[in-house]
Amino acid sequence: MIHDPSKVPLGTESTSGAPAGAASTDAPLAPAADAGNPSALPDGELARLTDDVIAALKTVYDPEIPSDIYELGLVYKIDIADDRKVTVEMTLTTPNCPSAQELPTMVENAVASVPGVGEVKVEIVWDPPWDPSRMSDEARAVLNMW
Fold first, then answer.
1. What are phi and psi of 49, to 5 degrees?
2. 62-72 per-position pLDDT tens digit
């Protein structure tokens, strides 16, 4: 199952690999099965893993910014495979980010700490480039960026 937090409003799931757009809300996730490709994981387990992976991502903060990477909109896609392997596609606020070396490792460690998760892979992507419109309302409030 693929969760693309920046393509669709949080609270829905996507199985599309299409380019991401802006997240519009920070509502709780309610995973939906892909009718054409149902997961081999039971729905309840997939929902738990999804929620727990997102919770883990929300513990990772860019050392330069007082908001977590998920609410900042740095996470573009979360893919939980049937074998429990998790792939996270994320970006950084800028290619010159001083935390570029440590953030992917922090994300990998946070996701790997989720019970039931298998191998974790973190991919840094630059397309589409990050911009402040990707931030959730929660991040905007924390950063006072209205």
1. -60, -45
2. 888 899 999 99
